[in-house]
Amino acid sequence: MKADTFFIIGSNTTETHPVIGYRIRKAIKEGASLIVADPRRIELAEHADVFLQLRPGTNEALLNGMLNVVINEGLYDRDFIRERTEGFDEVAAAIQKYTPEYVAQITGVPAEAIRKAARLYAGAKNAAILYTMGVTQHTSGTSTVFAIANLAMATGNVGKPYAGVNPLRGQNNVQGACDMGGLPTVFTGYQPVASPEIRKKFEEAWGVTLNPDPGLTITEMMNAALDGRVKMLYVMGENPALTEANLQHTREALEKVDFLVVQDIFLTETAAMADVVLPAAAFAEKDGTFVNTERRVQLIRKAVPAPGSARSDWQILQELAQKIGLNWQYGGTAEIFAEMASLTPSYAGISHERLEREGGLQWPCPSPDHPGTPYLHSQNFTRGKGLFNVVEYTPAAEQTDPEYPLVLTTGRNLYHYHTGTMTHRSKGIEAQSPEELAQVSFEDAARLGIRDGDVVKLCSRRGELETRVRVTDMVPPGVVFMTFHHASAPVNILTNDQVDPVAKIPELKVCAVKMEKVVS
Predict the structure, then answer these.
(1) Could you say which of 133, 168, 203 is where a domain stops?
(2) DSSP assignment letter at 491
(3) Which residues make Cβ contacts (< 8 Å) with residue 433, sequence separation at least 6?
(4) CA 367 and chain centroid, separation
(5) What is the distance between the alpha carbons of residues 151 and 65, in angstroms, rounded to a whole number?
(6) For the packed helices 141-154 and 59-72, what is the interaxial angle rounded to 10 degrees?
(7) Which residues lie closer than 8 Å to 101 by C-beta, 6 or more apart?
(8) Do residues 351 and 215 share a domain?
(9) Which residues form the domain of 468?
(10) 424 with 242: CB under 8 angstroms?
(11) Does some domain include residue 372?
(12) Same domain, 156 and 203
């Protein structure tokens, strides 16, 4: 990595993306600077030049405070703003009230630390922002990403190597799933379903009439199931019975649908509720492509046969399509990829044959002789000029009160992966993290008479659970941290399913809870 400065916000990179985390630590040893913003004192905080330990749910305010310093101290890139962007003056005016002192009151981060972080970021030749779901899983997630973009554009840290805004994906092929239209508003390559021209292209290729209306997100599907608007669910490689916010609500929805199908490699908690389970092949048991967080399309090849009756996902879907009267006759993943690439401009120059010959390619790759695109926005943005957006701080949807005085925030640890569908089956990994240990501050533990290893009951306005605790200085007073790796302590029983108004992502990272010791 050749960035001069890394600004990591809402990402416990060394535990959730350990390869990237290793490279960041290597870059630091070679002289790079590091800014970390997180409610917890994560491992990277110990390596940071500036650690911004903010209150959960105050990302917008912190970013606005940094931009206030950048603008008022004249640290912004005037040429980049003039030539490549629009809307700067409106943001510059709106940002004036977000002084470091005002932001310190909201975030709990000292004003001088905010100034130091802003100067360090703006003073770098190449500064990279890295973020994950600690930013997006809030009711203010979309506006926080706008605030990140504002900071990057104001300093000219977009459209050049070793800089930019870098969302780190939560699973190994999230990027590929999104690229392939695994979102309710787009076809492949982020082509909007609402566009008549785009829809016509796909209709002519597939010989069908397509619905112009966007679909539902997972949270919206659960609401629709409870309302009776969704009668059937087909779940592939997902475990919503543990991952979704307000789990009691989600499980009621899964129970209510008339027909539930789950396609997965193991019998997950969701699969155990299903009417039909379709056994799928794991990554090493099939051919296809994965796309990583830098948009690199990579070919995977079947290494071992799938066990029992398990099949590749495309084979299951093709046979199901044939049974309902669709004449799908694909001969393999290369043929499917070729059809997709013919309809997707950003993938038009990529094929299985080329990936086999040349290795991974980064989209956009619009033609067979195009080398791929290492970084985006080198000449212009998708919309032409980059748009600054005015962002106002909005508190989390749920606040603490005397009955629920603690803030619960959630995340992951190094040893397990999501709901542990795979990692709990590894004896070595399971030995490292056999049960959930909710992280509690020394101050809160002393106040509640709790010791390390005690069992506590955590309650929110939606549910309750019991878990053991780890008393630690990683979390500040007033904050509790849990992972969602353990079904024995399903943290999403507690979390809030209020959603971001644009992205419709639930606020998994902030909810109000109370804690009490369980006396045996």
Answers:
(1) 168
(2) G
(3) 413, 415, 416, 485
(4) 30
(5) 10
(6) 20
(7) 111
(8) yes
(9) 406-517
(10) no
(11) no
(12) no
Count of the separate structural domains present in the chain: 3
The answer for 259, left when phi > 0, alpha when psi is -120 to 50, beta otherwise, is beta
Tell me how far apart the alpha carbons of residues 369 and 352 are, in angstroms, rounded to a whole number: 14
CATH of the domain at 440: 2.40.40.20
Distance CA 43, CA 452 (A): 20
Residues 6+ apart with CB under 8 A from 304: 284, 285
244 and 292 inside one domain: yes
Looking at the chain, the number of H-run helices and the number of E-run strands are: 19, 19
Q: Which of 118, 144, 168 is the last residue of a domain?
A: 168
Residue 139: name the closest of 388, 496, 514, 513 by CA. Answer: 496
Q: What pTM, to 2 d.p., does this model score?
A: 0.93
What distance in Å separates the CA atoms of residue 242 and residue 396, rounded to the nearest whole number?
23
- 220 and 143 housed in the same domain: no
**Is residue 219 domain-shared with residue 328, that is, in the same domain?**
yes
Give CA separation, 372 vs 178, 297, 363, 368, in Å.
19, 10, 6, 10
Per-residue tokens: 426: 């590894």
In this structure, the answer to whether residues 196 and 147 fall within a common structural domain is no
Q: Flag whether 476 is in a domain.
A: yes
Q: Who's near 269: CB < 8 A, 6+ residues apart?
A: 239, 241, 242, 419, 487
Whichever domain contains 274, its CATH number is 3.40.50.740
Q: In this structure, is residue 228 part of a structural domain?
A: yes
- 385 belongs to a structural domain: no
Residue 342, number of CB atoms within 10 A of its CB: 12
Q: Is 130 helix (H, G, I), strand (E, B) or coil?
A: strand
Nearest alpha carbon to residue 205 among 295, 83, 340, 6: 340
Domain CATH code at residue 159: 3.40.228.10
User: 117 and 97 in one domain?
Assistant: yes
In tens digits, the chain (520 residues) has pLDDT values of 588 999 999 999 998 888 999 999 999 999 999 999 999 999 999 999 999 999 999 999 999 999 999 999 999 999 999 999 999 999 999 999 999 999 999 999 999 999 999 999 999 999 999 999 899 989 999 999 999 999 999 999 999 999 999 999 877 788 999 999 999 999 999 999 999 999 999 999 999 999 999 999 999 999 999 999 999 999 999 999 999 999 999 999 999 999 999 999 999 999 999 999 999 999 999 999 999 999 999 999 999 999 999 999 999 999 999 999 999 999 999 999 999 999 999 999 999 999 999 999 999 999 999 999 999 898 888 889 999 999 999 999 999 999 999 999 999 887 888 888 888 888 998 888 889 899 999 999 999 999 999 999 999 999 999 999 999 999 999 999 999 888 888 999 999 999 999 989 999 999 999 999 998 6
Place of tokens 């799928």: 280
How would you label 217-227 residue by residue, b for 16+ Cβ within 10 Å and e otherwise? bbbebbbbbbe
CA distances from 33 to 30, 47, 48, 122, 135 (A): 9, 9, 7, 12, 21
- Same domain, residue pair 164 and 27: yes
